[in-house]
Amino acid sequence: MKLYIHTPALLPLYDLSDKVVVVIDILRATTTMCVAFQTGVSKILPVSTPEECLLFKDFDFIIAAERNAQKVGGFDLGNSPFEYENPILAGRNIAFTTTNGTKAIKMAKEMNPASILIGSFLNLSALCNQIIASKKDLVLLCAGWKDKYNLEDTLYAGAVINQLLQTYEMRDDAALCAHALYTQHAGDLEALVRKSSHAQRFTLLHLQTDDVKYCLQIDTCKVVPQMDGNFLRVK
Ligand code: MLT
């Protein structure tokens, strides 16, 4: 099988039919989604805007919104994975909007791939096992930051590629670069990611939790969220 790396801005140039798409937003949307489902959340509805997300409060949804790395005022939750460890979330439905992650999911959905999976370091091996079992070509969709490249999503794409080398062939230079970046820094991912623009954003915002360290845990989560209609669920 073949694998490719794309970013949201360029995604419309490609054909996703019969491909598995993995949406990657390591800091923090896809990490947070994995934690939510590990906690027992029933389903997550990716939503485009905070205004639209607010509408779901009246329909027994928990509403969650992040913009520019900060929780949006008036919402139940933001986008720190620590918030989603709370057992009161078990069995609940969440309407969720983030700056880049939910936008990438909805863009991919519009293009009707075979499946849309959610990837993070937390569910790395569970995700790779599911990719291999699909026997389909693969697109690693790095959400980035406002259509700019970001380091941590590409680093993670390299980690996925490193687990798939026996099964998939890299079909573009973006994949070759991602794998080279990962193999060069696999021994200390945190040191590299702490230099990233998003980690610096967290520092400037005086984030109260160490979300960078949390989002770099490997294989602490066994669930692989995937799109089922308009909702993310764990099958
Ligand atoms: C995003 O979706 O852009 C990120 O997850 C933003 C964040 O949570 O800091």
Description:
The structure is a single chain. With 235 residues, this protein is of the alpha/beta class. The chain has one domain (2-225): putative 2-phosphosulfolactate phosphatase (Alpha-Beta Complex). Helices cover 35% and strands 20% of the residues. It is built from 9 helices and 11 strands. A hairpin with a 2-residue loop joins strand 4 and strand 5 (70-71). The protein is globular, with a radius of gyration of 16 Å. The model has no long low-confidence stretch (mean pLDDT 97). The chain binds D-malate (MLT). Residues 25, 27-29, 66, 69, 79, 98-101 line the site of D-malate.
Topology overview:
Layout: E1 2-6, E2 20-24, H1 29-39, E3 43-46, H2 50-54, E4 61-67, E5 70-71, E6 93-97, H3 101-110, E7 115-119, H4 124-134, E8 138-142, H5 151-164, E9 169-170, H6 173-185, H7 189-193, H8 197-204, H9 211-215, E10 226-228, E11 231-233
Parallel strand pairs: 1-8, 1-9, 2-7, 2-8, 3-6, 4-6
Antiparallel strand pairs: 4-5, 10-11
Helix pairs in contact: 4-5, 5-6
The structure holds D-malate.
Give a concise summary.
The chain is an alpha/beta fold and 235 residues long.
